[in-house]
Amino acid sequence: MPGSRSEARAPAGGRAATGLAVVGAGPAGLAAAVTAADHGLDVTVVDAAAAPGGQYFRSPPEELAAVRPGAAPRGQRGFDDLLTRLTAHRATGRVRYLSGHHVWTAARTGDDWALHTVTGQAGEGGPMVLTRRILLATGAYERQLPFPGWTIPGVVGAAGAQAMLKSGLVLPGRRVVVAGSGPLLQAVAVSLVQAGARVPALVEAAGYGGYARAPRVLAANPAKLTEGLRHGAALARAGVRVMSHSAVTAVHGADRVEAVTVSRVDRDWRPVPGSGRTLVCDALAVGHGLTPQLELAVEIGCDTTVRADGSPALRLDERLRTSVGGVWAAGEPGGIGGVGLALVEGELAAHAVAAEVRGGPLRETAGRVRSLLRARRAQRAFAELMGAVHRPGPGWRDWADDDTEVCRCEEVTAGRIRTAVTELGASDARTVKLFTRAGMGWCQGRTCGFAVHELARSDSDGARAPTPDRRMPACPVLLSALAGEDTTADPEEVAGASETPGAAEPGGNGGNRLP
Length: 515
Description:
Elements: E1 20-23, H1 27-38, E2 43-46, H2 76-92, E3 95-98, E4 101-109, E5 112-119, E6 124-131, E7 134-136, E8 140-142, E9 155-157, H3 158-168, E10 176-180, H4 184-194, E11 201-204, H5 215-219, H6 222-237, E12 241-244, E13 246-252, E14 259-264, E15 277-280, E16 283-287, E17 290-292, H7 295-300, E18 304-306, E19 312-314, E20 327-329, H8 339-358, H9 366-390, E21 405-407, E22 412-413, H10 414-422, H11 429-436, H12 449-456, H13 479-483, H14 491-497
Parallel strand pairs: 1-2, 1-7, 2-3, 7-20, 9-16, 10-11, 10-16, 11-12
Antiparallel strand pairs: 4-5, 5-6, 8-17, 13-14, 14-15, 18-19, 21-22
């Protein structure tokens, strides 16, 4: 592929600005980085994880000398090709890779952007990356709906259970109920079975009938249909009972999960009285979809919209440009769509960036871009269908009694949130936070934000989606790191840093961190 001219240049501070900074090295970010490098752009990749691939292509660390159980994930060959290309571009210096780094804020510096980072277990200050353009591929996090007992040891997120298995070959239990809503549940249940766990039931709140009402969308996405059928067959062979239009509404146990209550739910996800039954298990993997990770994008000023699953997502044009000049996004920030869509959007966004650098469309990639656009339209349509089918119904709020902890960081119960609404006049999550501190803890509302919003709104609000707060920092950061934040990454500094992987999340206890 013909390369464009390199855009690295010296800004006012005298350090070289990279042509493109890619934030995140999951499927979307990885595809974007290597495609942009193929075009001749100088690329810096900033990733929170120790290795590229994101959640989907996560694998055990080399020191375990272990092989993940089950078949390789769909698309593994393509991912291996991306890794090979990434390695080649790193060897030539075309791509610089910062692993174990979080971008906590981004600011304009003339024509360039300055990305400020933290790294390591304690969240120490990292280098500042100067770039002409930004491509956001920040992924998503799991959406949780609280119910009695969900904080008991042995309850894990569905995606968390998959991460435990992929990265550490660890099972959350021997007899695991999988519950929540969304196609991820099937993949998680199959992975657990392949790893040797007993999965007595997959409990799906929404059901799958909604897919049949969109035959054209299914016809345009045969791989999705095939994947669903394959998972269904694997679950049937393993004796996993699929319980649709049902939800886990309580967990039982003192020091550990001992059983769960499964209730039938109506179309609004409201439990049907008298339908509860007990399932014995020692672990529960539960999740109700994913939420795009938008903190950095919203802080930059990117406009958002609402997707069919009720989550906010970035407003993007067909070439993946955000509302802010010089900023693109690919993958889950534009709406939850899965690995296939992320790969398509990552490559498409990189072609768009290269076209801007060259001052117009690229003839040599015109056919490929048209193909990617068609694939994106088809897969985005499926993503919207998936979101609509599995969107949480308002009746889930009846699962949480007044003693149910909603904000685990600040130990705020559903009862306190309801009191803030009924007696103190709170009508949105922000006001509830002021009265109760819900969402002011370590996770910055990532775990409880959706639930707090839903408990705060009235039925007359309809399907009003939460509006992301525009605030910095985009991740927890030490005040000492802020005070000493004066380093700028040049090519040599970045190349050296990439050889020392950091932690996927700033951790540790205590410390003077901004919330």
